[in-house]
Amino acid sequence: MTADPIVRVTGLRKSFGATLVLDGISFDVRAGEAVALLGANGAGKTTLLKILSTLWRPTRGMATVAGFDCAREPERVRERIGLVAHGSLVYDDLTALENLRFWSVLGGGRAGDGALREALAAVELEPYAGDRVRSFSAGMKQRLSLARVLLAHPEVLLLDEPMAGLDQRGRKWLEEHLQAFKAGGGAILMVTHSFGQGLSVADRVVILAGGRIALDAPRASLPPDELARLYALHTEEAP
Amino acid sequence: MKFARRAFIVVWKDLLIEGRSKETLNALFFFSLLLIFLFQFALGPDHERLAAALPGLLWLGFILSALLGLGRTFVLERDNDCWDGLRLAPGDKSAIYLGKLAGNLLLMLVVEITLLGLFATLFNVDVGRALPALALVIGLGTIGLAAVGTLFAAMTAHLRARELLFPVLLLPIQVPVLLATVKATEAALLGEPLGSVAHWLKLLAAADVIYVAIGVLTFDFILEG
Amino acid sequence: MTRVLGWLAGLGLLAGLVMGFGVAPRELTQGNVQRIMYLHVPSILTAYLAFAIVLVASVGYLLSRKPALDRWAAGSAEIGTIFTAITLLSGSIWGKPTWGTWWTWDARLTSTAVMFVTYVGYLLLRGMIEEPERRARFSAVVGILGAVNMPLVHFSVLWWRTLHQPPTMLTPRPASMSPIFGVTLAVNWVAYTLLFAYLLAKRLRVSRVEEPAL
Predict the structure, then answer these.
(1) A135-161: b or e for each residue (b if 16 or more CB lie within 10 Å)?
(2) Interface pTM (ipTM) of the complex?
């Protein structure tokens, strides 16, 4: 008997003024599972992620993480999630180590410098611990972002186009980390715009179109050309 | 205590970043110098006139510096979406408010000491004996200024019209603080015992408590952006 | 409902005018200009009512996020600011023939002026935020702070003007408060409160149509 899903989205609606972006979304993510969220620009992927990460409130419906309502109990949810999004959420004028120290303490953590350096080592940034983030490349900032998030031992990782801006080596590296995270029991919800990047990590694929779920299927059941066809069908875009 | 550690790490972070760029501090130092010139030119060379107007000029200088320096408190958080990071970090958000407030207090105090020193030197006014009393008045007044200033800085950080709205919102709220501090500073400089202005000091203390309390209670709503 | 309020307000104002100009006697020392009290005092009282509503609605909005409360706060603030302006203008008009000057930094006028500026700031803030949810939240905080600040303003201005100086209570109050003055004042006060309620009801109706999706 499988455990309850750690992420539940039920009848989620989000509108901005008169514009309806999400029109009744329902799906789950289980612990140890990775879901890839695909869709054209404006389909609502980032909106969904923002609601799940408690940054935005839904207009109607519910999103819960580990049983906690994202809108009503955001602090409980924030304790359990990690968001890696477009902004790197690090300070350019601080060093990598100082950034980790700040975000760790702010989140209530008690990690000493040793643990912080280990976190940097895990993302291969230990040699740059004392360098200011301003001097980092986009890929390095991305890795620091991930280190910052993993330090808090989240149960759910929310990723918004994490592969963008990474080179081939970087993408392989990220895939390895995400696999390890899954193996450790974590759940992943990953938004990708053009599929093919990072899909090897995904167990399930969800396609969002017109604010609704057009497809929700295990990746194993979808050979690449079938997926491409379905994607083009639902989003009227070539992948 | 976790809350205190979190507030302190915010102060630490802001001091580190300001210490490295020194943008705000340098500009405010220079601004203080310019203010001295401004007041001198506006009021003329009559020493008596300047000495008589000193309490008002001093606080005008403090408030103008506050308008310049406090408004920027949260602007740096917009880089790299760190603002979202502040929201996402679990825990009571008012620790962030108090940390920012403490940082602003330090900034304001440095500027105020500079201005006071410049005034005393260039206008040849003896403030030595009044220093303890002045310290109390300036301390109480600055808390009031910074408490509301930090809150409104967070509010206006995202708005296009930040430079306009910040002074427009802050100044009316600061009327009691301005009146109280100028009167109390006047008394302090004249060497009168602080008991004679006890009512003003109590008003300042009450204002400080109210402003900080509202800041703590409402900051979460502002942080939502 | 709104129409009933409108009629009541209209009748009340009519009654108030009749009493103010017809029934109430000409004041001994100040002359006819004293009659402006029947406009000046009810205006400020109505403004206080308006800003009390802003405070309650602002707190209510932050706690419940109900858009209706934001509409109440915004509408009350607008109308309250107008009544505050009327208070200032009527005070100024009274002051010219009585004291020979259009403005004086008398304690009550000054406090009223500070209140006026505070809420103009509130309205400016609202005007500069387009996003309805953010606008509601931010103005709620300013509304709370502005209202809570009023007692501090009142005392600080009062002490500023009256301590170490002979108290100057510049007000169009009659030299002797015989009952007829009080009754006239009360009638006008009720009339202006009804007017406020009517204007608020109309304003709420308009804002409900403007932002149905908040």
Answers:
(1) ebeebbbbbbbbbbbbbbebbbbbbbb
(2) 0.92
